[in-house]
Design brief:
Blueprint lengths: L2 H17 L2 H8 L5 H20 L7 H26 L2 H8 L2 H13 L5 H18 L8 H24 L7 H24 L7 H28 L2 H6 L3 H13 L6 H48 L2
Helix pairs in contact: 1-10, 1-12, 2-10, 3-4, 3-9, 3-10, 4-8, 4-9, 5-7, 5-8, 6-8, 7-13, 9-10
Length: 313
C-alpha cells in the first residue's frame, strides 16, 4: 500500500472512531427512548449543511442511485442501529455490528469482482472475536428484534459501502456533495418514519440541543464526509474493517468519562480488534492492488499476441 493510501486510511479511520462516541452522547445528553428522532436530527441537518457548501444536486440517473445509497447508508442503517442499541446491551449490539467486514468481503465478489482472500476473512473473524472480548458481558441478554436489527444494520451498511465503491461519483462531483446528497435524502426519509413511530418531538433542553449539534456536525457531517472520501480512494473491504474501531472507541470513552472499568480481557480484545483492523485493511488493499496490476497488464499482451499470429508464430 502506498504511503498516500495509508494516510487516507488513517483519515478515514477517524469516522468510526467518532461514531464510537454516539452511545455516550445519546445516553448522557439526549431525550430517552427517541431513537428515530435522534437518527433524523443527526442526518438531516448534517446533509443540509454539506449541501449548502457543495451547492449542487444530482442529475439524471444519479437521483435514483442517491436515493438507494441514502436509504441504505443513512435511513435504514441509522434506524436499525438505534433500534438495536435500545433493545440490546451495548456489547451485543457492538458484536453484531462487527460482522460488517465479513459481509462486505462476501459482497465485493459479485459486485466488484474482487476476491478478498483467506487472510482478509481470517482478519474479519478475529476482529469479531476481539470486539466480543471488549464489549460482551456474561449477563448480556438477547432480544430477537434487537438481534435482527443489529444484523440487518451491519448488512445494509456493508451493501451501501460496496455500492458506493461500485458506482463512484458523477464526473466533477467531490465527496462533499456526494455525502450531502446521501445524508439529506436519508434524513428526509427518516422524518415521516420518526413522526409515525414516535410522535411529535419532546421539548428539548439546552443540553439536548448541544448533544444534537455534536451528532449532526462533527459526528455525522464531518465523519461521513471522511468515510465516503475514503470509500472513493480505498478498497471497499479495507473501509469496512474500520467499523471495528467504533466499539473499541465507545469502550475507551466509557472508561474515560463514565468511570467504567477495563478488564484484562477487554484490553486483550482491544489489541486483537485493532490488529485485525490494520491487518484486514492492509490485506484487502494489497489484494485490490494486485488485481489492478493484473488487469492493467492484460491489454499490453494482446497486441503482441496479434503480431505473433500474423507472423505465424
Amino acid at each position: 500500500m502506498l504511503p498516500t493510501s495509508k494516510g487516507t486510511l488513517a483519515l478515514t479511520a477517524l469516522a468510526p472512531l467518532a461514531w464510537g462516541s454516539t452511545y455516550l452522547v445519546t445516553t448522557e445528553y439526549l431525550p430517552p427512548d427517541r431513537p428515530l428522532l435522534t437518527a433524523t436530527l443527526r442526518a438531516l441537518p448534517a446533509g443540509l449543511l454539506l449541501l449548502a457548501f457543495a451547492r449542487r444536486l444530482p442529475k439524471g440517473g444519479w437521483w435514483w442511485r442517491v436515493l438507494l445509497l441514502g436509504s441504505l447508508n443513512i435511513t435504514l442503517f441509522l434506524a436499525l442501529l438505534f433500534v438495536a442499541a435500545y433493545r440490546l446491551p451495548g456489547g451485543v449490539a457492538g458484536v453484531l455490528g462487527a460482522i460488517q467486514p465479513l459481509v462486505a468481503a462476501g459482497l465485493v465478489v459479485p459486485l466488484l469482482g474482487e476476491r478478498p482472500g483467506g487472510r482478509v476473512v481470517l482478519a474479519g473473524v478475529a476482529g469479531v472475536f476481539g470486539v466480543a472480548l471488549v464489549v460482551l458481558r456474561a449477563t448480556a441478554q438477547l432480544d430477537t428484534v434487537g438481534v435482527l436489527a443489529g444484523l440487518a444494520g451491519a448488512g445494509v451498511m456493508a451493501l451501501g459501502t460496496v455500492l458506493t465503491k461500485r458506482w463512484g461519483r458523477p464526473e466533477g462531483v467531490g465527496p462533499l456533495a456526494m455525502t450531502g446528497w446521501q445524508l439529506t435524502v436519508g434524513g428526509l426519509l427518516l422524518v415521516p418514519i420518526a413522526l409515525l413511530a414516535e410522535g411529535a418531538p419532546p421539548a428539548l433542553t439546552g443540553t439536548n440541543l448541544l448533544g444534537y449539534l455534536y451528532l449532526a456536525v462533527p459526528n455525522t457531517a464531518v465523519a461521513y464526509w471522511l468515510f465516503f472520501r475514503g470509500v472513493g480512494k480505498l478498497p471497499a473491504s479495507s473501509v469496512a474493517f474500520l467499523s471495528l474501531l467504533s466499539p473499541v472507541s465507545a469502550t475507551v470513552l466509557g472508561w474515560v468519562f463514565l468511570n467504567q472499568s477495563l478488564t484484562t480481557l477487554q484490553l486483550l480484545g482491544m489489541g486483537i480488534a485493532l490488529g485485525s483492523t490494520v491487518a484486514g485493511a492492509l490485506f484487502a488493499a494489497q489484494r485490490a492492488a494486485a488485481g489492478r496490476v493484473v488487469v492493467q497488464a492484460e491489454p499490453a499482451s494482446r497486441p503482441a499476441a496479434r503480431v505473433r499470429a500474423r507472423l505465424g508464430s
